[in-house]
Write a structure and sequence with these properties.
Blueprint lengths: L1 E11 L4 E8 L4 E7 L4 E2 H7 L5 E6 L14 E4 L5 E4 L16 H4 L5 E6 L2 E8 L7 E7 L3 E4 L6 E5 L4 E6 L2 H17 L6 E8 L9 E9 L1
Parallel strand pairs: 3-6, 9-13, 13-15
Antiparallel strand pairs: 1-2, 1-5, 2-3, 2-4, 5-7, 8-9, 9-15, 10-14, 11-12, 12-13, 14-15
């Protein structure tokens, strides 16, 4: 089956690999395309100019394996079938990818957290194996999100109108800006409008953090 996906998320992983996700408008769902069943190396990202707004066409290849919640969107694709074009979406208009009323609802009210400090939820995660989405978005006002650098790491404080969250930023665009020029440079990359489409997603668990898929900001569009 050939899919057409509007890329919404490009996030950094270890080893110069990236995770790519996007909106399948035909089936009204988020998809995490996995070339050859794996993640995207830097060279493949560069070859196809993958970024938010890229329209990715590819052939789905078999069924994904692994654990929920990521199994909800994981979709292996045929590496040789990848084709791309570039677009300029209206990220806050009526044709934009679907957004949720709140972050909690986006993840089936399955969120947990390590602590709440100053009214801000920190260490927010979903237990591995939870059957819910691992990718979502909310629409917020410009004043409802800010970037900072506690403990030498880029984080966002996000207020979705129902709760406030401190989340690590995994977006390649914003992390590169932060590395190049700190929080000021990353903040300068925010869209020049009053409403933002904020991408959020769950990291896969790993040996150092077993059974917990931590919530991150995958993009601010």
């Amino acid at each position: 089956m050939r899919m057409e996906i509007l890329v919404t998320d490009v996030t950094e992983m270890s080893g110069n690999n990236y995770c790519v996700a996007g909106w399948d408008a035909t089936n009204k769902r988020m998809v995490r395309p996995l070339p050859g069943g794996g993640h995207w190396p830097q060279a493949l990202i560069a070859k196809h100019r993958i970024q938010p707004g890229t329209v990715l066409k590819a052939i789905a290849m078999g069924a994904a394996t692994g654990a929920f919640p990521h199994l909800t969107e994981d979709t292996p694709i045929d590496l040789a079938s990848i084709g791309t074009t570039q677009s300029t979406p209206d990220w806050v208009g009526t044709t934009a990818p679907e957004v949720s009323p709140s972050i909690s609802e986006a993840f089936s009210n399955s969120l947990k957290w390590n602590k709440v400090f100053g009214g801000v939820h920190q260490g927010v995660y979903v237990p591995t194996g939870t059957q819910c989405s691992s990718l979502a978005a909310v629409k917020v006002g410009k004043a409802n999100i800010s970037l900072s650098q506690p403990f030498g790491k880029l984080v966002a404080i996000l207020d979705d109108g129902a709760a406030r969250y401190q989340l690590s930023v995994s977006s390649h665009i914003y992390k590169k800006g932060w590395r190049d020029g700190g929080v000021a440079k990353a903040t300068s990359l925010l869209p020049n409008r009053t409403r933002f489409h904020v991408r959020v997603g769950l990291a896969r668990d790993f040996e150092g953090q077993p059974n917990r898929c931590y919530l991150m900001v995958n993009g601010i569009l």
